[in-house]
Design brief:
This protein has two domains: 130 residues, Rossmann fold, CATH 3.40.50; 136 residues, 3-Layer(aba) Sandwich (Rossmann fold), CATH 3.40.50.720. The protein has a six-stranded parallel beta sheet, covered by helices on one side. Strands 2-1-3-4-5 form a five-stranded parallel beta sheet. It has eleven helices and eleven strands. α1 packs across α11, α5 packs across α6 and α5 packs antiparallel against α11. The protein has 286 residues and is an alpha/beta fold. The longest helix is centred in the middle third of the chain and has 22 residues.
């Protein structure tokens, strides 16, 4: 039975998560979160934190370089150091890179990427969509109501975002490649735009929000965009917009990464807790 949880590093979502798990009667010990005043059980070393843990939880995303993400600490924790101390443990974090899976091979470590969980992805789409609308409102001089907004991609985020935009009165168009997606877009009452017809339609929109995780708006496409338009990119690295071209063309651009943690850390932590509890049950039932 899972009882002892170690939490290493992370942002405000992880801080809130630690407190939530304590309220669920788990024994929580943390490391590299010492700058937060809410957390009480803080270990002095990484080894002390992890030693007796049934589950170890890391940041979302886990790392951007050789160190894990520790914004609430002055302690720098190398990915290699973390892996060395995880032998025999189950480790849950977000956006775990392939090279980290390779480092863990042969060390009796179970790595689980919480970002790949469907329930968390769906719930996070809500926070991401709200964050995108917040950016659109703050960075444009017009109301979204009755404004022409284009959403690129009709996946989880695209669906939730389009519904919210429609709810506040925006004129919503959605781009997709699949004929089934285009049919659903039409059924919801949005304007469907096939990817092959995207270029000739771009100059109609004041706000373009991308959700597709590969470059859709290359230089050729960007040349068709209004000079006073706003482009918001919600896709993770490398994103869906040519960063060099959008700057050279002078188009207002916001690459809005990790919005759930920025705009709604408490709600995001609650979503993470729900997902983790599901994962704990699955682990215990194996």
């Amino acid at each position: 039975m899972i009882k002892n949880i170690a939490i290493v590093g992370g942002d405000l979502r992880i801080v809130k998560l630690a407190n939530m798990l304590e309220k669920e009667n788990y024994e929580v010990k943390t490391y590299a979160l010492e700058k937060d005043q809410e957390i009480t059980n803080k270990a002095n070393t990484l080894q002390e934190c992890i030693k007796d843990a049934d589950i170890v939880i890391g940041p979302l995303p886990l790392s951007s370089n050789e160190y894990i993400n520790t914004p609430f600490s002055d302690n720098k924790v190398k990915v290699d150091e973390l892996i060395e101390n995880l032998e025999g443990k189950t480790f849950i974090a977000g956006q775990i890179k392939q090279e980290i899976y390779e480092k863990a091979e042969g060390k009796n470590i179970i790595l689980l990427d919480i970002i790949k969980r469907e329930e968390l992805a769906v719930l996070n789409a809500i926070s991401t969509a709200e964050g995108a609308i917040q950016i659109a409102i703050s960075e444009t001089p017009k109301n979204l109501h009755a404004n022409n907004v284009l959403v690129l991609g009709f996946g989880r985020i695209g669906k939730v975002l389009s519904k919210m935009l429609d709810g506040i009165g925006a004129k919503v168009a959605c781009e997709a490649r699949k004929t089934t997606d285009l049919a659903w877009i039409k059924a919801y009452g949005y304007e469907p735009i096939n990817l092959i017809e995207l270029k000739q339609n771009l100059n109609r929109f004041d706000i373009i929000i991308n959700t597709i995780p590969f470059v859709v708006l290359n230089r050729e496409m960007l040349q068709e965009v209004k000079k006073d338009a706003l482009i918001i990119d919600l896709a993770s690295n490398p994103g869906g917009v040519d960063k060099v071209a959008v700057k050279e063309l002078g188009i207002k651009f916001n690459w809005a990464l990790s919005l759930p943690g920025k705009v709604s850390p408490i709600t995001s932590a609650e979503f993470m807790k729900e997902t983790l509890l599901n994962m704990f049950k699955e682990i215990e039932n194996k």
